[in-house]
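--- STAGE predict ---
source: upstream dedup step, 1 unique chain passed
mode: sequence only
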Amino acid sequence: MPFVGEAARAIVAATAAHWFHRPAFYGEVRRVLVPGGVIAIVEGQMSQKPAPRRPTELLEESAARADEFAAAGDHDGEATWRRITDAVVQLANENPAGPVH
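--- STAGE serialize ---
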């Protein structure tokens, strides 16, 4: 990745990670993420569900996923989903196009 060390708070790979040389990719992730940073790998699945109409729906879904983990007593899973949600909201709110509402 063309970044200096500890330059990113979040790294997102969408429907591409299966092409990566994983050891090299994760090495770069460790180098580029700030301490406590978040990595999100999103893989697509064929679904009969329509795509979300608003970007905030994706955030609502990740928050709901955290709630599911919490209800199941999986605190590591819950914490991971809450960090992902928080990082996406923070990055979106810093977007020059405007904050997420």
